[in-house]
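Why does residue order matter? Because the sequence determines the fold. Keep that principle in mind as you read this record.
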Amino acid sequence: MFRLNRNALIITTAVLLLAACKSATQPSVADTPTQRQGHCNSDVVQHFVGRTATPEVLEQARQLSNAERARILRPDDIVTLEYNPRRLNINTDASMKIERVSCG
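Structure:
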């Protein structure tokens, strides 16, 4: 009888652990970056590539991307490297032409 209870306990524990792992690795629809409030979506602002970066363009791109913050990064700028999912980065060349738009 002890052996049956022990095996049932082991199987139950294994099933619970596997269930916990599965739910932790698959985010719900509400957890996707484009659905969360303030999280940046750079896909919707790719049409700004090729334009000249101005404060007005920066604000338009920030609003369209749903980012809380935005910054223009020139070739020789010193920047922080921490990832911020709520920030839009607009990378330009030396003449302020937008070369890349990304979140982080």
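The first helix runs from residue 2 to 25.
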